[in-house]
Structures are given as C-alpha cells and as structure tokens.
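PROTOCOL LOG
Step 1. Enter all chains and additional molecules of the complex.
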Amino acid sequence: MFDPILQQILAIARDAWAFMAGLLIVVALLGGLYYVLQGTAGAAFGASRMTSMAIIGVVGLVIIVLFAFLFLPQIGEMLKSFQPAAPF
Amino acid sequence: MNEASSLLLTFLREAWMALAGALLAFVLLAGIAQVLRVSAAGVLGANLWVWESVSALLSVMLIGLFAFLGIPQIGSALQSSLPNAPGCGPISELGTFASALIGGLAALRMLKAAFLSALSASIGGSSSFAHALIECAEAIFGMLLASLAIPLAAWFLGTC
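Step 2. Run joint prediction.
Step 3. Record the structure below.
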C-alpha cells in the first residue's frame, strides 16, 4: 500500500543526492582553486604561514570530499543492513 | 476480531517498512547536506559553522542507528511486557486486540519521531533528537499504562 509512495520519495531522494553530490564537487573545486591561489600568493610574498594554511586547506577539502563519496555510501549500506522488520 | 487485528497490523507493518526506507534515504541526504555545509564553511573559514555541521552529521548518524537498532528492541520488549488479557470471550479477544494495536502504534510512533528528527536535520534545521526521545518515553509510558489498564478493565468487566 505504501510502496508507490516510498518509490516516489526514493526517486526524489536520489535526485537530491545527485544534486548535492554535484554541488559538493563544484564547491570543492572552487575551494581548491581558492586555496591554490592563496598558496601561490603566499609563496610569491614569502608568507610561509599563508602557504602552509593553503596546503592544509586543500588537504582538508580533499579529505572531506573523500569522506562524502567513500564513507557515506558505506554508512548507507550499513544502515540498510540494519533496517529492521516491524517488531509487532 | 482476529481478522481486524491482522488487517490493521499488516497496515501498520507496511507503514513501518515505508517509514524505515524513507528514514534511511533522509539520513543519507542529511549526511551529504552536512558534508556540503562543512566543505563550504571550511572554504569560507567559518569555524563555528564547521563544528555545527560536524555535530549535526554525528547526530543524524546517531538518530539513524537509534531508529534501526534501538526502537525495534524497545518495541519488542514492550510488546512482551504487555500482559495477556485474562478472562474469556470478547473481553479476552478485545484485550489481545488492544495490546497488539497499542504495541504497533507505539513502535510506529517512535520511528516517526526519529524520522522527523532526521528530516529536520536534512533540511538544515536543528536535529531534535530530544524530541524523538520524548516521543519514545511517551510511548513507553503509554504502553506501561496499557499493561496496567488491560487487566484492570478485564477485572472490572468481569472475568471467567
């Protein structure tokens, strides 16, 4: 009875997932570009702290994106395996 | 009475499965939304926003784990704590029907509370985990009350 509704919700959720994954890539690329600019500017000025902060920022951004694309689907698979039958 | 009970319980079971599937989808959506927020806040240098998002991400995962591991256990524990209706005839049947229905509704209500919490977190609101816990406590209290009320009603109406 509820299956057609669930299918509709899941279709919307899949679209939303694809949209947010795309948006995450765009934000990460823009952020990466910003950090590269910051790093090169810091290197040109001789601002070693600015450069190192930019390198740390890029590494952090890469870790966040990897977390989203590798860890979250695994969490989803784990939760799917935990999905309980009705306890009544 | 048995047919009505099995029909209603089938309806509630289907609702449970649909709600569990939707909860899983919204937990994952909330997760990616919070990761997006973390990355945007990290780029902007908004430290507070980053920590808010990290804590929201953790709370959403916690809600999902609680919904999938804790609520069925609470539901089955409470279901087993409800006494079998004493007596015979329609009173007994009514008691069994009521206890099955109360258990199903309470479990579904707890899952609904967890679902609303995950939904709230997925659209950027605060993840009201406390609200889910309050709903669970209310359901437990209601079932405990029902476990007292069923024998009392049977005694009042007369047992054989």
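Step 4. Note key features.
DSSP finds two helices and no strands in chain A.
Chain A touches chain B at residues 1-3, 5-6, 9-10, 13, 16-17, 20-21, 23-24, 27-28, 30-31, 34-35, 57, 60-61, 64-65, 67-68, 72, 75-76, 79-80, 82-88 (CB under 8 Å).
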